[in-house]
Amino acid sequence: MSTTFHTYVKKYQAVRPERLYGDFRKYTETAFTTDDASIYFIVKCMAAEWLPDTFVVGGNYNLLGRLRVDGKEHDVPLDMGAFWFAMPQIQQHFPAKDQMSEYFMARSKAATGLSVPNAVKYQRGTSI
After folding, report:
1. Is residue 12 part of a domain?
2. Cα separation of 40 and 107, whole Å?
3. pLDDT at 25
4. Separation of alpha carbons 110 and 117, rounded Å
5. Beta strands across the sheet bearing 62-69
6. By C-alpha distance, which of 33, 34, 83, 77 is closest to 55?
7. CA dist., res. 98 & res. 111, Å (int)
8. CB-based burial of residue 119 (10 Å sphere; 0-12 exposed, 13-18 middle, 19+ buried)?
9. What's the pLDDT tens digit per position in 25-36?
10. pTM score, two decimals?
């Protein structure tokens, strides 16, 4: 007999068990882990296999790709703007992810010299 626990998770942060305590804790501790998170689970799950050839640069500062878990493929959007904005050092200088993204992308000049929206600069200028 197997036991299955079903839940709905709105927001999560995956952390390796050895990084929950000791010297590594300062690298995994964020506003989410200190202010928002209230339940911790240490679970064993099936290994996920990233499928690198499926990744493309999408709109709105996202990378889009697929991963395989237990023989099934799943679409995975990676919000790179949110990834960088989650760093406390970045949050000290910008009130929102969109403002941070616009600031850094505005410093990049379009190759043609034309006025190109920043999201398009990211899409065309990013390689995987």
Report:
1. no
2. 40
3. 72
4. 9
5. 48-57, 62-69, 72-79
6. 77
7. 23
8. middle
9. 777 777 776 777
10. 0.52
